[in-house]
Amino acid sequence: MSTDHQIKRLATIFKDMVENYNGFGMVWKNIPLATEAFAILTEQINEVVPGEIESDKDKARLVVNMLDNMDPLSTPRLCLKMWEYVKQVSPELADEEEIRRLRDYIDPNLSTDEWRQRYHKTLKFDDVERSEEWERNIYDVEKKVDAKVKGMPRGMGFCFSYWSAKKSVLESYGIEWRSPHQMNPRVLFD
Fold it and tell me: Distance (Å, rounded) from C-alpha 117 to C-alpha 135?
């Protein structure tokens, strides 16, 4: 793929990522886009592209822009890999607090309750969400969930339909998951 084609592909990816991030419940679509764009930036573009990418710092800025359009706790390992790249090539752009948060999130020696307390998160969530298995499957799961809830009104009560569909799809992957409502029974959702 020519450098010109790679730059055009990156522009399309970034546009799509912003649209997905701003679309209700569509940020999951950014997982393969970010993976592709990160590979283009770090593995395929090895030359200066005048007016586009003139240094590793420019690449790092683009990676930070991608990270702004991700749900880091859905793909903590991917996002951590991206942040570590930024830290390596342009340390002043690295978000050290976010790097620490993601490292702690995937650390099996830190309990979920300890992580929640350390990062001031009040809602409980299922430990499985921190696993490599979750991260490996979450895009496909969300794609299937999206198909199941397609056409449903996205107003009051939608979260329960979404969580039910997600639980069902995750079960087909052999992943037992408890929804936010199950984890926080005294919280009123919606």
Answer: 23
